[in-house]
Structures are given as C-alpha cells and as structure tokens.
Design brief:
201 residues; mainly alpha; 3-stranded parallel beta sheet; 6 helices; 3 strands
Length: 201
C-alpha cells in the first residue's frame, strides 16, 4: 500500500512539474508579444512592476482554464484529450487577455500578434504533452495484467478499462477451463490478475 501511494505521489509530482513548465513557457511567449507588440501602443505604458503583474494575471488565467479543462492529466488521459484541453485553455486565456489589452489601450488593437501567440502556445502544448506523456510512461509503465474469465467474455469490460491505460495493460486473456496449474504458471509472469465472472468454487 505504501509503495502504491509513493508511486502515485511521484506521478502527481511529475504532472505538476510539467504543468508548471507549460505555464512558464506560455507566460514567457506572452511576455515577448506584450513587450514587442502591445506595450508601446498604450496611452500610459506600464513600468517594470506593472509588466510583471500583467504576466502574473496571464499565468493565473491560464492556470484557471487549465484546471477547469483537466489539462494537467499527463499519463492519465489520452494524449489527444490532454492536448484538446490545453488548446481550450490557451484559447480562453488569449481571448480574455486580448480584451484586457484593448481596455488598457482604450482602443481595439491589432489582433494578429495575439493570434500568432495563440498558435505558438498551441504548439507548445503539443510538445509538452508529448514529452510529459512519454516521460511518465517510461518511469511508470502500466502493470501487465492477466485476465481470467469463465462464463462471459471480458472484452466489453476491458474496453471500458481502456481509459486507464496508465495503470493496467491486459497482456493475456485465459479461460478457467485451462486448469489451475496452467493458470498458476501464467500468474507468475503477470504483475496483476483480473478475475472476471468466475464461479466461487
């Protein structure tokens, strides 16, 4: 039990690390666009502390959207789902940030820099998701599972379990008719065993 808890703790720590790196990378990209394309167009440009505050607001917005859309579940959700969640978070952050810049500038500003920023940050999301998902699966591979069944085929149940590929990978499906000796031999190589619809006797 303690080993399992430590394993989950390490996985959460890795997810948090990649999430923080993603937030930092997106904020740095925004800082570049802000300083080079929007700051000078304001009626009263920010000084250094004002810029840092705006970076913090951008990062906070992204964090809120990221957690609302579950975009930090590296190694837990499927990679396309994580990317889509992060894309939604990026789009929401960019939209609200553009409105803030317009309000601070007292006019509608050029939308092209924020669109370019959004495109770059979407690419950043893809890169971080690919790396994060790969690293977590390298350090925490799914357990090989032996499935033992009797009356009803476990295929449908295993399809439902497909959403948790981070925990278990069905390596072999065997019927109880093979006998206890053969089942015991196969269990030696399995890291976990799923007993599905088998009579108590």
């Amino acid at each position: 039990m303690m080993r399992r808890k430590k394993r989950e703790l390490y996985k959460r720590s890795l997810r948090m690390l990649f999430s923080l790196l993603l937030i930092a990378a997106q904020t740095v990209c925004f800082g570049y666009v802000w300083l080079n394309y929007y700051l000078q167009g304001m009626n009263a440009p920010f000084f250094e502390r004002g810029n840092w505050l705006f970076y913090a607001v951008y990062a906070l917005l992204f964090v809120v959207f990221l957690f609302c859309f579950d975009g930090t579940k590296y190694g837990l959700y499927r990679r396309p789902n994580i990317i889509w969640s992060q894309v939604l978070a990026t789009l929401g952050t960019s939209f609200i940030t553009y409105l803030q810049i317009c309000l601070l500038s007292l006019k509608f500003v050029n939308v092209l820099p924020i669109l370019a920023l959004t495109g770059v940050n979407i690419l950043v999301c893809m890169v971080f998701t690919a790396i994060g998902d790969w690293v977590i699966h390298i350090f925490f591979p799914a357990r090989k599972m032996l499935v033992v069944w009797d009356n009803y085929s476990p295929e449908q149940f295993l399809r439902k379990m497909g959403g948790r590929k981070d925990k278990y990978t069905p390596e072999e499906i065997v019927h109880v008719s093979e006998g206890m000796e053969k089942l015991a031999e196969r269990m030696q190589d399995a890291e976990s065993v799923l007993v599905y619809d088998v009579h108590s006797e």
